[in-house]
Amino acid sequence: MEKIGFVGLGIMGKPMCHNLLKAGFEVVFHARRQEVVDEMTAAGATPASSSKAVAEATDIIVTIVTADAEVREVILGEGGVLEGASQGKLVVDMSTISPMTIREVAEQAQKKGVSVVDAPVSGGDTGAIAGTLTIIAGGEKRDVERCAGIFQAMGNEENIFHVGAVGVGQTVKITNQLLGGITMAAISEALTLGKKAGADPEVMRQVISVSTGSSRLFEARVADFLLTGDFTPGFMLDLMKKDIGIGVEMGRAMDVPVPIGAAAYQMYAAASSLGAGEEDFSAVSRAIEKLSGISLST
After folding, report:
1. CB atoms near residue 229 (< 10 Å)
2. H or E element: which one contains 208?
3. What is the arithmetic mean of pLDDT over 7-15?
4. Is 145 found in the same domain as 15?
């Protein structure tokens, strides 16, 4: 087994790293929070003083952080992964960021003979804990194949996809996020309209769940989130706002109109301004409820 480096032990990264250890990989990691250092060290991983030190000590370096700026910091920045990586090493970024950013990273890495794979994930923290994530990989075939063992440790083998060159992984992930974010906003809008017009939200849920308006998101988010008012996050609203924003920006950069995505972004921005940013992304309903003066959960 190759030695694995890990940078980014947050809600997603920490359980993913635990699963690598359970699969028998030797892992070197960098974390800023002492409680994370203590937990991962107790689990059998080796702490390092910086992202650079992680790269120096390992063969494949996995990064998963919040957004584009953090990816640039931990990989391209001072004391970052690329400072410590040498020819033949492989960087696997599993964040959700712009395709343009990961291609910039790959271009800089190529100058040192370092390969890059972008492999964003879907499945939330529950999938990260269970090791059942969907993994959407972009990069050279040989590099993606080199990641097979670590991907299988973190994801559902049936849902590990090689979708194209570097950056295409992010492209596919962002299209999924754009569609999911729009759908959740539309569900909230439709149910709020229905309640305002006199329909019972639970009755609407029952009817729609067996009709053409149903979807996996409808089944997953209406009964347990919208109708209860419990928005304990599975995936935070501000992260969905960020991902939809990437999709809208991609459209602008490539002269592709994204009007529905842009409208959805505004609803997430409004909900975030109302204090829902760290709640589940289904709390986009808060913005529509505020505008209409009603609540789906009461």
Report:
1. 14
2. helix 201-208
3. 96
4. yes
The model carries a pTM of: 0.93
- The verdict on 282 and 257 lying in the same domain is yes
**Domain-embedded: residue 297:** no
Q: For residues 198 and 208, what is the distance between their CA atoms, to the nearest angstrom?
A: 16
Q: Which two tokens stand for residue 233?
A: 């996050």
Which domain CATH number covers 211?
Answer: 1.10.1040.10
User: Tokens at residue 7, please?
Assistant: 């940078």
Tally the domains of the chain.
2
Active-site residues: which are they? 173
Of the candidates 256, 261, 242, 246, the one whose C-alpha atom is nearest the C-alpha of residue 101 is 246
By C-alpha distance, which of 236, 229, 182 is closest to 201? Answer: 229
pLDDT confidence tier of residue 234, bands split at 50, 70 and 90: confident
Q: Are residues 17 and 125 in the same domain?
A: yes
Q: Give residue-wise pLDDT tens across range 257-273.
A: 999 999 999 999 999 99
| C-alpha dist (Å) from residue 159 to 49, 88, 217 | 34, 27, 18
What does the pLDDT look like over 118-171, one tens digit per residue?
A: 999 999 889 999 999 999 999 999 999 999 999 999 999 999 999 999 999 999
Examine the domain organization and report whether 179 and 129 are in the same domain.
Answer: no
